[in-house]
Amino acid sequence: MKTYQKSAELLERAKKVLASGVSSEFRKYNHPHALFYTHGRGSRIYDVDGNEYLDFTLSQGPLILGHSHPEVLKAVAEYSQEGQLFAGQHIKEIELAEKLNQLIPSAELMRFCLDGSEAVQTAFRVARAKTGKQKFLRFEGHYHGWMDNVCWGISTPSVEALGSREQPNVFPWTQGLPEGVENEFIILPWNDIELVRKTVAERGHEIAAIITEPVMCNNGCIEPKPGFLQGLRDLCSENDIALIFDEVITGFRLSLGGAQAYFGITPDLSIFAKAIASGYAISAIAGKYEWMQLIEQAKVIHAGTMNAGNPTVAAALATISVLEKEQPHERMFRLGKMLMAGLQQAAAKTGQAMLVEGMGPMFATSFTPIEKTNDYRDTLAADKAKLGKFVAAMHEEGVRVIGRGLWYISAVHTDEDIETAIITAEKVLAQI
Ligand SMILES: Cc1ncc(COP(=O)(O)O)c(C=O)c1O
């Protein structure tokens, strides 16, 4: 058994001044409680009790180059010497935008923000302003940040409670939401193009945007069915609707051009955050000129004191430069698939009904009788308590996985890391 004594003591101290001791709701749900870390290096992270973990959380995704990548740290340190924030422009900001423009199919024009949540809201504003319509269509189980109008459809008491597929019930994730905010969106199960087609036929005159994670990574890790993204693309083009790809997870992870380059479907607007800058606070709303020109013309206002500060821009440029130089995506797919296969074998050997689904650079494990999941409703068949036991037991053995069963592969994970994770999983699966 690991000891978490020092973390437990720090948590007690933190709780006196930080609400429940943390700065983000998700950090509460670590094993066995919120933990305090001292440092991270490469594929490893260390807590205050001296425990070492092989890290597949990558801090919820951003650390595509692993912890403390030397080239990122060097770029941040050097560029920060010149200043931190100018309330004005600087050269590297153009270089970064030029780079994204070159790599990402939809990125004709962009603005930088601080995180995914606010970039999503900016995209909605652009879509409403351009189309003159009010609602956005979104999908059950997709996470688009924690703001009022997207704080729905991500938690639910049961699959029955969701009701009909045509007109699902939605449940708020939090109290304190303004009345009527749920009228801003229409929600549907994902991966069902016929249902989207029917809804757009009936209500397209109200819909300004369709927003989707191109791969659903926030509940399970589910690929779009063949033709689904193209179907959305066609419907949006035909009905004056903005297609928004929320690439907060898929961006830089599936390819340097994101899921849109990987699948060959170009949205009107897209959101990038997480892996863009190795853990520094920068995101981008990028899009086709005909949409983004509303910001250019100041018909849509986007602002932010802290946007595109020197350290964050330097971190993004350095991260992308390493990715371009090392071209790790093929390796990340290979290692991810090797780990997925190893976990499946370990589950078969130990007689566990563990489903391993995803693309390689990210994938999810769940305990479920279902053989393939297509949408959020399918994921609700999984045994969450058992997943909790698995993730906790892996943690005890020094392998850190995101609590909802999501695994991220970085450019610095090695074949040995993958073997360690497989051996550990087999041991753990035999115990739980
Ligand atoms: C797909 C997706 N969109 C948006 C967000 C919100 O991004 P942020 O946490 O940077 O505000 C997240 C965060 O996990 C996400 O996974």
- The name of the CATH superfamily of the largest domain reads Type I PLP-dependent aspartate aminotransferase-like (Major domain)
User: Class of the largest domain, according to the CATH hierarchy?
Assistant: Alpha Beta
How many structural domains can be distinguished in the coordinates? 2
Strand order of the largest sheet: 4-10-9-8-7-5-6
User: Strand fraction band?
Assistant: 5-15%
The arrangement of helices and strands along the chain is HEEEHHEHEEHEHEHEEHHHEEHHEEH
Query: Regions with pLDDT < 50 over 5+ consecutive residues?
Result: none
Family: Belongs to the class-III pyridoxal-phosphate-dependent aminotransferase family.
InterPro entries: Aminotrans_3, Aminotrans_3_PPA_site, PyrdxlP-dep_Trfase, PyrdxlP-dep_Trfase_major, PyrdxlP-dep_Trfase_small
Protein name: Glutamate-1-semialdehyde 2,1-aminomutase
Cofactor: pyridoxal 5'-phosphate
